[in-house]
Amino acid sequence: MDESTTVDPMVIAAGLRKLRKRRWFLWSLITAYLPAIWTSLTLTHSDRTTGVLFGIWLILLVVAVGFVTTARCPRCGNLFHMHGVTPLYLRSCLHCQLHICADKKK
Ligand SMILES: [Zn+2]
Prior knowledge:
By secondary structure, the chain is mainly alpha-helical. The chain has one domain (9-87). Helices cover 56% and strands 4% of the residues. The protein contains 2 helices and 2 strands. Strands 1-2 form a two-stranded antiparallel sheet. The two termini are 24 Å apart. The mean pLDDT is 92. Zinc ion (ZN) binds at residues 73, 75-76, 78, 93, 95-96, 98.
């Protein structure tokens, strides 16, 4: 999709909402790591149980990173967080600079 193409603001808003949900899930997962591991070690005193919890967390993290990195920008259609092969989780599209909250500013 060309960057100069006009896209319906409702489509952009829906796309940005979807992007924010994916980002929220990823950052929540990252934030939950230390409390979850600490709680597991405190309650179970088991390295094995904590290791299983870590494995589950790691699988969820890989899935969340996959969802966030493959999210497309609703305005330009390119990958929102990818430029080349490197993901960069900024708050603006790496191609057309559409801000993640652009639909809320109007
Ligand atoms: Zn874009």
